[in-house]
Design a protein that fits this description.
Catalytic activity: ATP + protein L-histidine = ADP + protein N-phospho-L-histidine
Protein name: histidine kinase
Keywords: Kinase, Membrane, Phosphoprotein, Transferase, Transmembrane, Transmembrane helix
Radius of gyration: 61 Å
Distance between the termini: 63 Å
Shape: rod-shaped
Number of strands: 8
Helix content: over 70%
Strand order of the largest sheet: 2-4-5-7-6
Order of helices and strands: HHHHHHHHHHHHEHEEHEEHHEEE
Number of helices: 16
Organism: Nonomuraea roseoviolacea subsp. carminata
EC number: 2.7.13.3
Length: 638
């Protein structure tokens, strides 16, 4: 069986699961919303630490690519000095990118991997520079090497541009495409910085087609605030003049003013790109604030709902717990106080009035259980009253039958005594004595019925009687009295009002000893003065009693139970326990050294007196005859 718990603990446990679920749900909602706000706020940080340095590094790489291509076309001191200066600016932008990216590269695994890819591509700059300085690198190879470095930077832009806000993400992606279109323009610029080869023209033609397609597609997806600047550049005369030059280059020509025209447009596209990126970065912050406000509002609302739910649940749980506790106390009061008091009053013959069981409850089921308990209480009281009435009726029957039997037996004894006085033949006199002994036993059984009914037998003595005579009188009421050995004992005397009940008590014990022992064994009765009164021992030599049975019998003798009509095999035990309880006499059973049972009767000192200094006259006809100081086998009746 599991460990028992109170109803309050079980109610709290029942409410704890949904409340805990609500708290967890509130925490998850708050965490998700707050995380979304932090990510939006982080967008500006990523722009400052990654995208802006990446754009600046891309611009310097584009200029170094152009300077390298020009040097490879025309080797001059001017071109060499411009390349050296540009390389210095590129290195400064690279170091700045490394420093700033280190603060934000661990934001996510994708960003970390992309930054590592950019740094790996930047490591290719030194070898390609060495090849350029040694004059070992082909112009197309150099351009494609720089293209790989810038491609890694634009891969970083695309990863960093990812954001949970869909409108900002879509515009940021389009701005990155526009920026890549400018990167394609700078590649065109480097390829067509002078006369081109057939391979360079094929690559140039491919780049021009990609740039035009990418730019046309991006312009259709930009919102008006970002598109207007781009449209103004595309519709400008300078851009149209550049398109004509592109067609000329594709056709194999070398238009004059190509570098100046493309450089002007490159700067214009760069300014528009940085303006659009800065505008998108600024848009993320108000969105983040709105998300954060929504998070706080949602978290606060959920928190209030959780608190209200907890308070309401605890209030309902406490109310239900109090109602159940009141029902429990009422039930315990009925079982432990009211019903035992009713039974005790009925046992004493008093009138019983039991108030109804009232349990105040707002719960239908608890109210029904309270009414059921009230009905059970009333039914139990009615049953107890009926039981008491039945017991009283049985007691009246016992008393009436016993009184009638006593009257008849008393008349029978008078006739037997008269017949004994007139008898002259020994055999007839012996028969009359046996009839007299049988009548004495019948009188004891009649008194047993009176005792079981709760009344007091009429037999009694007015003066103290020696305990030896009391024991002899008890032995005389037993059928197999010839087996009884009454040993000499001190001359203490028993108070007269107690004599009749003690004779009956000892007679029942002696009869049990003779019945439950072999017929050839004696039953010994001894007596001696004890510290708390006078102790009598009735010992047989039978088979004994099992320890558990003896413990049960001693418990009944110490606390007499209610008489059970179904337990008629132990009438003597009920009679002994009733008589012992009436005079505070203690009766105890224990094992005998001979294997049988010894019954110890401790008569309190208040019922026992010391023997008189001078011998008294022979006991009257109503008192047991005094016995001499010797062991006897046959004890005559009263």
């Amino acid at each position: 069986m599991g460990r028992s718990r109170t109803i309050r603990v079980k109610i709290i446990g029942l409410l704890l699961i949904p409340l805990a679920s609500m708290v967890v749900l509130w925490g998850v909602i708050t965490a998700v919303t707050a995380t979304e706000s932090l990510e939006l706020r982080q967008y500006k940080t990523l722009w400052t630490n990654l995208r802006l340095p990446a754009y600046q590094l891309t611009t310097e790489l584009q200029r170094e690519r152009l300077a390298s291509a020009r040097l490879l076309r025309v080797k001059s001191n001017t071109n060499e000095s411009e390349l050296v200066a540009q390389r210095a600016r590129t290195d400064a932008a690279r170091e700045r990118f490394k420093q700033l990216s280190a603060a934000s590269m661990h934001t996510s695994e994708q960003i970390h991997a992309q930054v590592d890819a950019v740094l790996a591509q930047l490591g290719r700059l030194e070898p390609i520079r060495g090849e350029i300085d040694a004059g070992l690198a082909a112009r197309l190879h150099v351009i494609e090497t720089y293209n790989g470095v810038t491609d890694s930077l634009f891969g970083l832009h695309r990863n960093v541009a990812f954001i949970d806000d869909i409108p900002i993400y879509e515009q940021s992606r389009v701005v990155v495409d526009v920026s890549y279109a400018r990167e394609l323009l700078t590649r065109e610029q480097a390829l067509a910085a002078g006369p081109t080869t057939a391979a360079e023209r094929r690559l140039f033609t491919q780049i021009v087609g990609n740039r035009r397609f990418l730019l046309d597609q991006a312009l259709g997806e930009l919102d008006p605030g970002l598109r207007d600047t781009q449209v103004s550049l595309i519709t400008s005369p300078a851009y149209q003049r550049m398109r004509i030059m592109e067609d000329q280059i594709i056709a194999g020509g070398t238009p004059a003013g190509w570098l100046s025209a493309t450089e002007t447009l490159n700067k214009s596209f760069l300014d528009a790109q940085l303006q659009a990126s800065s505008l998108l970065s600024g848009r993320a912050e108000p969105v983040a604030d709105a998300v954060l406000r929504r998070a706080f509002l949602l978290a606060g609302t959920c928190f209030v709902l959780v608190i209200v739910s907890i308070g309401f649940s605890l209030r309902m749980g406490n109310r239900l717990s109090r109602e159940l506790a009141a029902l429990r106390l009422a039930a315990l009061e009925v079982s432990r106080e009211r019903l035992p008091q009713v039974v005790e009053k009925l046992r004493r013959g008093e009138k019983v009035e039991v108030p109804e069981l009232s349990v105040t409850s707002t719960t239908t089921e608890i109210g029904d259980v309270g009414e059921a308990f009230s009905t059970v209480q009333q039914t139990a009281v009615e049953a107890a009253v009926g039981q008491a009435q039945l017991r009283d009726g049985v007691g009246h029957v016992f008393r009436n039958l016993a009184r009638r039997s006593q009257t008849l037996l008393h008349r029978q004894r008078i006739q037997l005594e008269d017949m004994q006085h007139r008898a002259t033949e020994p055999e007839a006199l012996d028969d009359l004595f046996r009839l007299d002994h049988l009548t004495t036993r019948m009188r004891r059984h009649a008194e047993g019925l009176i005792i079981l009914s709760g009344a007091t037998p009429g037999r009694g003595w007015s003066k103290p009687v020696p305990l030896l005579d009391v024991v002899r009188g008890a032995a005389a009421e037993v059928e197999d009295y010839q087996r009884v050995i009454v040993e000499p004992m001190p001359g203490q005397r028993l108070a007269g009002p107690v004599v009749g009940d003690v004779i009956h008590l000892i007679a029942e014990l002696i009869e049990n000893a003779t019945v439950y022992s072999p017929p050839h064994t004696p039953v010994q009765v001894r007596g001696e003065v004890a510290a708390r009164g006078f102790a009598l021992e009735v010992e047989d030599r039978g088979l004994g009693i099992a320890p558990e049975v003896m413990a049960e019998l001693n418990a009944r003798l110490a606390s007499p139970p209610e008489f059970d009509l179904a337990d008629s095999d132990q009438l003597g035990l009920f009679v002994v326990s009733r008589l012992a309880a009436r005079h505070d006499i203690r009766v105890t059973l224990r094992g005998s050294p001979y294997g049988g049972t010894t019954a110890i009767v401790l008569i309190p000192a208040e019922h026992v007196s010391d023997p008189p200094a001078e011998p008294e006259e022979r006991a009257t006809d109503k008192e047991p005859a005094k016995e001499g100081a010797r062991t006897i086998r046959v004890v005559q009746g009263e």
